[in-house]
Amino acid sequence: MNEPILAHRDGAVQVLSFNNPAARNALTPEVYKALPAALDDAQRDAGVGAIVLTGVGGAFCAGGDLNRLAQRRAMTPPERRAGIEGLHDLIRAIRDCSKPVIAAVEGPAAGAGLSIALACDMLFAAPNASFSVAYVKVGLSPDGGATAFLSGFVSRQLLTEFCLTGRPVTGERMHTLGVVNRLVERGNVLVEAIAMAQSLATGPERAIARIKTLCRHAGENTLEAQLDLEARYMTESLGDDEAAEGISAFFEKRPADFSTLRRTPAVHSQ
């Protein structure tokens, strides 16, 4: 059997690829274990500054394997729930990784595949990439955080339309809605995502981890809670060697060099 996740390094960027092209990279229990493990490896590697998540064979991820999902009908509710939690643990692993994770989407990102793409910190896509909350077409309801992620970008009415129709939405429209960071010519999405990741990988590791956590909580926290979190992280940052290097570089009119300040394991988002 092929490895469910392919991993290769491009400088300081770890590229992780769904590897089930015959099924448009549909998800399996093996993926639920392999992707969090690969993210953890990247997390612990001081030589990795950022991660790109993509799929082989012209698709990002078509979501759950319907053959496997059909088998869950015969399971007890706790057994079904355990299968769903495998996906949700994968989503949490992306969310909790302190290093930036960029999704590079060409072809379909459907169902849980859409959830995974949205869980990433940034999303690069081709204009004709296809995003769909496809669950309703097979009599299912969304999981993987799809409704939570999309509700941060679109109105309740538009979210409801996406979920009740399951119709594909192009990368171009998702870019217009603010879901996609960069719209990239087909065939170049991975290259552009890696270029962005390379740029981020030279940044201050611990400050980036704090920024990721601030951005994740900004939409759910009250102003007071967010001010408290910002104060906590700014207090930590001011005492960090990264700030000393960054401020010195500014006054000395030179590029900051954070490479020697990287640590293993990295700071985890909370």
Characterization of this structure:
The chain has 270 residues and is of the alpha/beta class. It folds into two domains: 5-201, 2-enoyl-CoA Hydratase, Chain A, domain 1 (Alpha-Beta Complex), CATH 3.90.226.10; 205-261, Lyase 2-enoyl-coa Hydratase, Chain  A, domain 2, CATH 1.10.12.10. The chain is 47% helix and 14% strand. The chain is built from eleven helices and nine strands. The strands form two sheets. A six-stranded mixed sheet has the order 1-2-3-4-6-9, with helices on both faces. A three-stranded mixed sheet has the order 5-7-8. The longest helix is centred in the first third of the chain and has 20 residues, at 77-96. The protein is globular and about 65 Å long.
Indicate how many domains the architecture comprises: 2
Gyration radius (Cα, Å) is 19 Å
Q: What is the ordering of alpha helices and beta strands?
A: EEHEHHEEHEEHHEHEHHHH
What is the count of helical runs? 11
Assigned CATH architecture of the largest domain: Alpha-Beta Complex
CATH superfamily of the largest domain: 2-enoyl-CoA Hydratase, Chain A, domain 1
Q: Give the strand line-up of the largest sheet.
A: 1-2-3-4-6-9
Task: Report on the biggest sheet.
Answer: 6 strands, mixed
Pick out the low-confidence regions: none
- Structure summary, number of beta strands: 9
Strand content: 5-15%
Average pLDDT metric: 93
CATH class of the largest domain: Alpha Beta
- The level of helicity is 40-55%
Give the overall shape: globular
Oligomer: single chain
Which structural class is indicated by helix and strand composition? Answer: alpha/beta
CATH fold group of the largest domain: 2-enoyl-CoA Hydratase, Chain A, domain 1
Keywords: Lyase
EC number: 4.2.1.17
Pfam family, one: ECH_1
InterPro entries: ClpP/crotonase-like_dom_sf, Enoyl-CoA_hyd/isom_CS, Enoyl-CoA_hydra/iso, Enoyl-CoA_hydra_C
